[in-house]
Amino acid sequence: MEKRGGHVYFAKKDTDAVNYITNLAKEKHVQRVVKSKSMVTTEIDLDKQLLKLPGMKLMETDLAEFILQSDNWDEPTHIVFPTLHKNRDQIRGVFEKLGYTGDNDPTRMARFAREYLRGYFLQADMGITGCNFAIADSGLINLVTNEGNADLTMAIPKTQVVVMGMERLVPSLKEAEVLDNMLSRSAVGQKLTSYCSFSGEQVAGESDGPEDLHVVILDNGRSNALGTPFESVLQCIRCGACLNVCPIYRHIGGHGYGSIYPGPIGAVLSPVLDGYEKFGDLPFASSLCGACTETCPVKIPLHRLLIKHREVMMDKLKTDKAFNKAIMKGIGMGTAHSDLFQMALQFDHSATLPFVSKKPTTVDNLYNHQGHITHAPSMAKGWTDVRDAPRPPKHTENFRRWFKDHEAQKGASNDDQ
Amino acid sequence: MTSDNREEFLNFIAAKAERPRHQLTDHPFVPLNDLPETTLADKTPAELFALAKENSEAEHVTFKTAATADLPSVLDQMITDKTAQSLLLPTDERIAAYGLTDWAAQVAPRPTYWDPAGSRTENIQRAQDADLAIGCVEFLCAESGTITVATTPGQGRSFHFLPKHYVALVPQSRIVPRSRQAMDWYDTELKAGRLHTSNINFITGPSNSGDIEMVLVVGVHGPIDMTYVVLTDK
Ligand code: SF4
C-alpha cells in the first residue's frame, strides 16, 4: 500500500480512527464528504463526529444508507439490506422531504436518489469507503457493491479514506477473487455482484481516482478474539446469510440486537468487540438450531461459539469458584455421612429462620412450613433471585418422619385384617 | 501522517494471538481444491460463448454480436435506439484495432474522448455529460456474465460509471470461463510490471439495488443499462 504511495494508519480504538480521519479532513479543509456503505464506519460512529466539523456536509451514497440518513439517521437492521424494516410508502415519505414528488414505485424513487446524489458526488472532496478485502501483495483495496456508489466514491474525490477492520486481509488477488464469488452467492444469490473493484492510489497518467489515499486499519476489540476459541469469528465476510436463516432474527428483526452487527454473527461478534457487560444477553438469544453454522460460507461454527460464550460467561462472571467449591465439598460431606445428614435434617428448619420473608404471604403452598425464603445466601441465591424457595419443614414434620409414621400405621392396619 | 504506531500495533496482535509475526512469503497459502481453476475449464469456445450470452442476459445485459465490418452499423443503431445526444469514447488503440477510426471521425453526435492529457474535472465532466459511452474491456467471464477492465490514462474509472448508457466491446477470443482466469491474467501482468493501473473493475450488468422492499431496481448510481458487443472475428 505504501509502495503505491498510500498512507496506512493503525487504529487501536474507534476514537483513534475517528481522530485520524477528522484531523485529515481538517488539514485538507474538506467540506463535502461522500461515503459508500461500510459497517465499520458505523461501528466507530464516524459520520456524526465528522459532521461536528464546521461547514461539513456528508452524504451516504448507498441507496439504503441514504434513506436511513435522510430519515434522521435511523439505525440499519440488516447487514446487506439495511432498510429491510421500511416499506416503499415510508421511503416515499422520507424522499418527499427532499423534494420528491412521484409515486411509491421503487424504480422511480431510485432514479430520484440517483439524480440527487450525483450532484453531491461531483462536488465531493473526500470519499470514505469500507473495505471488503485488502490485498496484501499488491496493496489494492477490494470493494464489492451493486449500485456502483463505491466506485464513484473512489473515482471522483481527490482524497480517499478506507476504513478497514484489521481482519480483512487476503494474500493476493486470487484469494480476493474466490471470496468475492463466495460473498456474492451467499449475500444476494448472484454469481458475482455487479461491481467488484480492486483499486489503489492513482498512478501517473490517470486523471481520476484518489491522489491521496489513507487506509485506516482498525482493531477496536477485534484482537480480543485472538488466541481464544472465538478467533474464527474474524473470518466473517459479512454476507448476511446467517441472518437470513436465523429464526430469532426473522422474528425480532435487526434493531432488537442493539448492536450494528445483528443476527447470529452479531450475537457472536458483539460480545467479543464490546464485552459481556453490554452484549452478554445476545448469546442467549438463540434456539441453537445451528442453521447459521450450516449456511456460513466461511465455516464459522456460529452456534457452537454461542454456547462457548455462555460457558465463558458462566465461568468468568457468575461463579466465584473457590467459595462454591468449598460449599459443594461441605454438601458432599454432609450427604455422604449419615450422622451429619441426620443432623442437617434436625436443624434445617430452624437454621433457615433468618432468611424467611417477613412480609405477609399472599398465596400459600399446599404444604407450608411457616414461611418461605426470599433471600437465600451463597449458591442458593441464584434460585431466590428469581423465585421464592419453600422453607424446609420442621424435623417432626419432614418426609422421613411422615413416612415412618405412615409405614407404622399401614403395618398396624394390615395386622387388623 | 504515517503509521508510526505500526510496530506497536503488530506486536500487540502477535502477542495476543500467541503466534510470532510472520511474512506471507514464508507461509504461502495452499488451496484445498482447484475448483476455481477447473470449473467450466473444459468448455469449448462455442459453449463458453453460449454460456456468456445466457448469463449476461440473466444480469439484464443486452447481448449483441458483430463482425468488425458490421460494428459501425451496430453502434449507429444503438445511438439511435438510446437517442444518445452525446457520446464518449476512450483514447485507446483498440478503437483502431476494431476498425472504428473512420466511423469515429464521422459519427453523429460527435464523440468526446476521455483524454489522457485532460484534467480530472474535464474528464469527469465529459463522462457525466455522456448519454452513451463505448468502452473497450479485456475479458468477458462466461460463468457470471462479467466484463473486466483495468483503468488506463485513456479510459478512466468514471468512464464506466457516470454515463447513462454503457456499451462494452469485447473480442470473442477474450471470453474466459470464470473470473479466476481473468484475475490470473491481471495478477501476472501486474507482477510482471507490464500493467500499470490503479484500478481493476469487474462489472456484471448495470448497477442495481434491492434496498427498497427488496424489489430489484436496475440503474442506481452507475449506468442504467448495459450492452455487451462481442466481436466475432477478433
Ligand atoms: S458469520 Fe458467516 S454467514 Fe454470517 S455474515 Fe459472516 S460469513 Fe456470512
From TrEMBL, chain A:
Record SUPFAM superfamilies: alpha-helical ferredoxin, NagB/RpiA/CoA transferase-like
Residues covered by the 4Fe-4S ferredoxin-type domain: 227-257
Bias (Basic and acidic residues): 389-409
GO biological process: lactate metabolic process
Gene3D superfamilies tied to this protein: Alpha-helical ferredoxin, NagB/RpiA/CoA transferase-like
GO molecular function: 4 iron, 4 sulfur cluster binding; metal ion binding
Keyword terms of this UniProt record: 4Fe-4S, Electron transport, Iron, Iron-sulfur, Metal-binding, Repeat, Transport
Chain intervals for the UniProt region annotation (Disordered): 389-417
PANTHER family registered for this protein in UniProt: LACTATE UTILIZATION PROTEIN B
Name this protein carries in UniProt: Iron-sulfur cluster-binding protein
The organism of origin for this protein: Schleiferilactobacillus harbinensis DSM 16991
TrEMBL record, chain B:
Protein name as annotated: LUD domain-containing protein
Residue ranges constituting the LUD domain according to the UniProt record: 52-231
SUPFAM superfamilies: NagB/RpiA/CoA transferase-like
Gene3D superfamilies, A to Z: NagB/RpiA/CoA transferase-like
InterPro entries xref list: FTHF_cligase-like_sf, LUD_dom, NagB/RpiA_transferase-like
Pfam families associated with the record: LUD_dom
UniProt source species: Schleiferilactobacillus harbinensis DSM 16991
